[in-house]
Design a protein that fits this description.
Elements lengths: L2 E4 L4 E2 L2 E2 L3 E4 L4 E3 L4 E12 L2 E11 L2 E2 L3 E4 L4 E3 L8 E7 L2 E6 L3 E2 L2 E2 L3 E4 L4 E3 L8 E7 L2 E6 L3 E2 L2 E2 L3 E4 L18 E2 L11 E7 L3 E8 L5 E10 L2 E7 L12 E9 L2 E9 L2
Antiparallel strand pairs: 1-4, 2-3, 4-5, 6-7, 7-8, 7-9, 9-10, 11-12, 12-15, 13-14, 15-16, 17-18, 18-21, 19-20, 22-23, 23-26, 24-25, 24-27, 27-28
C-alpha cells in the first residue's frame, strides 16, 4: 500500500533513505538502512517481496551484489547476486527476470539476462551479446530491449522475445523432434558453466539430475511435464544447496516417461 522510489538519493523528505524510500501518502520513510553503493535502478515485486536492482554492494549492511529483496523488515541478498549493474526487473513464468550489464549471476555465466527462482540463478538460453536495459511482458512473452544485436543464436537488433512459457532456462526449437535424445553437454570439460540439450518427441514428465562418481545426486535441474520439443538447460556447477561442487567427473541422467539416458561430463576449476 506504499509507493516505493529508488535512485541515487541519500535522503527523502528530510529523512535518511539510502537509494530507496517508501511514501505512505503523507511522508517518506527509510527501508532499513538502504543500500551502500551508487544507485537503485529498478524495482519490482516477486514472491511477496520488494526486489531492488542497481549498482550497489550492500543492503542493510550485508553483502548484496546489485540486487536484494525487502520482506517488510529487512533486506536480503538473492544468492551471490550479479557481477555488474542490474537495470531492469520483471516477473515471468513465476520467476524473477533481471537484465543489465552483468555477465554472471550466482557465480555462473548468464550474459546480461537471468532468472531467479527463489533459490538460484539460471541463464535464459545463451543470453545476449551485450546489455539488456528494459524488460516487459507483452502478449504472454518476455520482451527484452537494450544495446544487444544477438539474442541466443539469432541476430536481433536491440529488441527480442523469449517465448518459453514453462521454464526460463530452457529454449524450445521451432520443429518437433522425431525421437528421444540427450545431447553431450557443451563445453566439455567446462568451467564455470555448461549447457545440456535434450529432445522429447511427445508430452512427458522429464527429470534431469546430476550425480557424482559415488552415485550421489548433487543437483536436480528439471522435474516437470514437458510438451514435445527440443530444449536446453544450463548448469553452473552448484549443488541443490547452491554450493559449488568440486572438480571432477559427473554424470547427468534424463528420464522422460519410460526413456532413460546418461552421459558424462568433466568440471575443471
Amino acid at each position: 500500500g506504499k509507493l516505493i522510489a529508488g535512485g541515487g538519493f541519500t535522503t527523502a523528505g528530510g529523512v535518511s533513505a539510502n537509494r530507496v524510500a517508501a511514501w505512505d501518502g503523507f511522508s517518506w520513510s527509510e527501508l532499513g538502512i538502504g543500500m551502500t553503493g551508487s544507485y537503485v535502478d529498478a524495482l519490482t515485486v516477486y514472491d511477496n517481496k520488494l526486489i531492488a536492482g542497481g549498482y550497489f554492494s550492500m543492503a542493510d549492511g550485508s553483502t548484496a551484489n546489485n540486487i536484494a529483496s525487502w520482506d517488510g523488515s529487512s533486506w536480503s541478498p538473492l544468492g551471490a547476486g550479479t557481477d555488474d549493474q542490474v537495470v531492469a526487473l520483471t516477473v515471468y513464468d513465476n520467476k524473477l527476470i533481471a537484465g543489465g550489464s552483468f555477465r554472471e549471476a550466482g557465480g555462473g555465466t548468464v550474459n546480461y539476462i537471468a532468472s531467479w527462482d527463489g533459490s538460484s540463478w539460471s541463464p535464459l538460453g545463451s543470453g545476449l551479446n551485450i546489455d539488456a536495459t528494459a524488460l516487459v511482458l507483452f502478449d504472454g512473452k518476455l520482451t527484452a530491449g537494450g544495446s544487444f544485436t544477438i539474442a541466443g543464436d539469432k541476430v536481433s537488433a536491440y529488441l527480442a522475445q523469449w517465448t518459453k512459457t514453462t521454464s526460463a532456462v530452457m529454449e524450445p526449437n521451432s520443429q518437433l523432434p522425431e525421437k528421444f535424445a540427450l545431447g553431450q553437454n557443451y563445453p566439455n570439460p567446462f568451467n564455470p558453466s555448461t549447457t545440456i540439450e535434450y529432445s522429447v518427441p511427445s508430452r512427458s514428465h522429464v527429470t534431469i539430475e546430476i550425480f557424482n562418481l559415488l552415485g550421489e545426486r548433487v543437483r536436480r535441474l528439471v522435474d516437470e511435464t514437458k510438451s514435445a520439443g527440443s530444449y536446453r538447460i544450463g548448469w553452473t556447477g552448484l549443488n541443490d544447496h547452491n554450493q559449488p561442487v568440486a572438480t571432477g567427473i559427473y554424470f547427468y541422467r534424463i528420464r522422460a516417461g519410460e526413456q532413460v539416458q546418461i552421459r558424462k561430463m568433466l568440471l575443471i576449476k
